[in-house]
Automatic annotation (TrEMBL):
GO molecular function per UniProt: electron transfer activity; heme binding; nitrate reductase activity
Stored InterPro entries: Heme-iron_electron_transfer (IPR051936), NarG-like_domain (IPR023234), NarG-like_sf (IPR036197)
Domain of life: Bacteria
Protein's recorded name: Nitrate reductase subunit gamma
GO cellular component labels: plasma membrane
Localization: Cell membrane
Positions of transmembrane segments: 6-25, 46-68, 88-108, 124-142, 198-216
Domain NarG-like: 2-218
Keywords (A to Z) from UniProt: Cell membrane, Electron transport, Membrane, Oxidoreductase, Transmembrane, Transmembrane helix, Transport
């Protein structure tokens, strides 16, 4: 069972993510992400920027925590205790902001959506999956496991073993139960990503920065045409 959960499932999720991403960008059914922005109360419009900024912080924190070994941070002069405190405080801040931003976005969508439109089950499932990943991760981080030994000695080495194609499921089996649930939810989100509204993360107009300049030419002003002089003896209309 450990092999299925901690070896087969991660590679399967990554494969579905890769194939779905390529199919979405190049296949017949190209991505057409509908806009989720609708006019509504100004107090609810801050949810989207807060969520996206916090999500970027969450992803960056995971990349550092999972890919940078403990010996590297120790060589840089950051001991395990200091790293754990920094990871916990920053992780709790980013996770809390992401949860609040997601809640406000969902509330905004429900407040401004059409009452006659049928509910989008795919969006609802995406919101539930995002909430599960964030809440489980926030719980793990708040308990001090996000930057502690349970994380850096089990989750980090296990992820790096997957990347070098030498998976070690025994490391994942030693993770705390909540951390394992967080990891499984994260892989489920990874597999579903290309088939949900989250695919807009790959639709950033990066090519806009390298496109040639658009030249605009002003048209010369035309003088207003004067009316023809009226014939003698005829009134001017």
């Amino acid at each position: 069972m450990n092999t299925v959960l901690w070896v087969v499932l991660p590679y399967l999720s990554a494969a579905v993510f890769a194939v779905g991403t390529v199919a979405g960008r190049r296949g017949r059914r190209r991505w057409t992400v509908r806009s989720g922005h609708r006019p509504g109360p100004a107090v609810l419009r801050w949810g989207s920027p807060v969520f996206h900024a916090a999500w970027a912080g969450v992803v960056l924190g995971h990349l550092v925590g999972l890919l940078v070994p403990a010996r590297v941070t120790a060589a840089a002069g950051l001991d395990a205790a200091a790293y754990g405190r920094a990871a916990s405080w920053l992780g709790v801040a980013a996770g809390t902001a992401a949860v609040l931003g997601l809640a406000v976005m969902v509330l905004h969508r429900r407040r401004t959506g059409s009452p006659t439109a049928p509910p989008d089950r795919r969006d609802a499932a995406t919101h539930l999956l995002l909430a599960a990943v964030l809440l489980l991760g926030l719980y793990v981080t708040a308990r001090g496991q996000g930057g502690g030994d349970a994380y850096r000695e089990t989750a980090g080495p296990w992820v790096r073993s997957l990347l070098v194609l030498r998976p070690d499921p025994a490391l994942a089996a030693e993770m705390p139960p909540v951390l394992r649930a967080h990891v499984l939810a994260a892989f489920a989100l990874l597999a579903a990503w290309p088939f949900t509204r989250l695919a807009h993360a790959f639709l950033l107009p990066v090519g806009y920065l390298a496109r040639p300049y658009v030249l605009y030419r002003a048209h010369p002003r035309r003088r207003p045409r004067r009316a023809a002089p009226a014939a003698a003896g005829r009134p001017v209309p």
